[in-house]
Amino acid sequence: MKNRIIIALLFILSGLLIILAPTVLFPVCSAEKMKMACYYSAKAEIGLGGLVAALGAVYFLLKSKEIRIGITIAQFFNAILVIVYPLKLIGLCKNADMACRVKTLPALIVLTVLLGATALVNLFFLAKSSKTE
Amino acid sequence: MGSRRVKNLIRNIRSHAFYNACLLVTISILSVILFAGIVVSRSLYKGMDNMQKRLGADIMLVPKGAKEKAENMLLEGSRSTFYFDASIYEKVAAVDGISEITSQCFLKSLSADCCSSEVEIVFFDPQSDFVVAPWIETEYRKDLSGNQVVVGNSISSEDGKIKLFGQEYPVVSKMAKTGTALDSSVYFTSEAMGEILENAEEKGSFLTEDQKNGGILSSIFINLKAGEKSEKVVESVHQVIGDIFDVVYPKQLHASLSGSLTKITGIVNIISFVLGGLLVLILLIINSILMNQRKQEVALFRVLGRTKRDLIRMLVSEMGLISISGAVIGCLLSAVIVIPFGAFIGRSLNMPYLGPGLAATMVSFALIVLGVFLIVFLASIFFIVHISSVDPYLAMRREE
Asked: Is residue A98 less than 8 Å (CB to CB) from chain B?
């Protein structure tokens, strides 16, 4: 129960931060004059953050350990997607001193590590407790 | 250390989970502060050092009234254009006391052309240049032809080309990273200026009359002969071309930034010192509670035949495992935040910032792990020796 609450909260928090990082906390470049790659990366991150938070809520509601292991694995790959969107799939502005590269990208790197590490540690504990049962 | 011994150590640590977790968190916070402080300070000093080298001229002449613009351009990366009549260059070059002289001309690119933002286009003379060349990473081409471009370290080019005013230009070389605004400039030879200005006008860029007429330059960089005083040379230049220029002294700019840097690192050091001291105090308190709790356990081990030396070794090993784990976790956590946010930190402080590089980061990492281990060792060795020396009979009776 304790594991479920803590991990679900961490997943939901990560999801919310993935939504807020490129939009509110460390916003990407302004799209007033022109919509650049970072604008679309931010949109994708909003969707991905929503998915991460929703999976966090599902994690809290379900008791089955196998399903929770599955959700944790999914969250690990979501963590990879968080950084792959801006770096490879969609991209950011080319110039290294643009806001999206100076602020948003580092924030997304931190969130990738946070979500990925949470998923990996949780996976380790779930696998270990499954073995002992 | 055998795996059985490690398992025993972990079991011992887990049997006092709460206090050891407090110890781990305290050590991690201490490591986060130390690592962040060291990396940020080093990066600021490295950036400052590079900036001093990069502004490698004794005097920079700019048109009258453009001094502030020129300083902001060098320090903060604001895009500016200001012009002299090019004919003054030869007159200034003839002044006594000058060992090296070169000129540059600045132009802003269109916002959406190459880089999703404006870049400063700098035209330089490769024959007389001593400012740009030392920073070109690959082979410096004295025979750089008109349409070839050297780019600052922050400028990315696709397929070795860069698009400016609708025209693609081959990138022949990239400048080394300086940690300053100069990283987001592109460099052409002076002979490319006419063609680029034409393209700029075609693409609807607003050109001033000066720019349309050509024969312009933005700044003149001067290195003085050894022993020559800058005031004397500036006075001579005044006599030759009149009061049409302002003087920027790159070394003075550096000196004023150095003052700010000393203040910033001073504040960082004071905060680190105070927080570090506070954390060491917390460490001492946790250690005293933890060791007091373990008195009976240690006494029992003594009764069962373990020597005092064995017990000291066991307790020091536990502390070592916790301190090294805490230091590694803290340093990793700090690295994940401080390293990616480096450019943001530099920009927020308005200072040149250049990351310390992998080797220096690894050295800092190792030193902090070692330092934290020593701090924890010193903060706990008194308690460890004390409880190992307590008479087992007395210790067990007091716990009864």
From this structure: yes
Domain ranges of chain B: 3-51+256-399, 59-248
Mutate: best of B75, B111, B113, B117, partner A, most A CBs <10 A = B117
How distant is the Cα of B339 from the closest Cα of chain A, in angstroms?
Answer: 8
Burial status of residue B105 (CB atoms within 10 A of its CB: 0-12, 13-18, 19 or more): buried
**Does A133 fall in a domain?**
no
SS3 B189: strand
Strand B59-63 and strand B185-189: the pairing is unpaired
Look-up: residue for tokens 């750089």?
A: B144
Q: A29 at the B interface (CB within 8 A)?
A: yes
Among the partner-chain residues A96, A101, A110, the one whose CB lies closest to the CB of B336 is: A110
Probe site for chain A from B10, B79, B333, B341 (most A CB atoms < 10 A): B341
pLDDT averaged per 10 residues in sequence order, chain B, 400 residues? 76 84 90 91 85 77 86 70 84 89 82 58 84 66 71 78 80 78 80 81 70 78 87 89 87 78 85 85 86 80 81 86 93 93 86 85 92 87 80 65
Q: How many domains, in total, are found in chain A?
A: 1
Q: Which residue of B has its CA nearest to A117?
A: B333
What range does the domain containing A65 cover?
2-124
Q: Measuring CA to CA, how many Å separate B362 from each of A21, B48, B349, B359, B374?
A: 29, 22, 25, 5, 18
In a domain, A72, yes or no: yes
Q: Which amino acid is at B138?
A: T
Nearest to B344 among A33, A93, A106 (CB): A106
* Interface confidence (ipTM) of the complex: 0.83
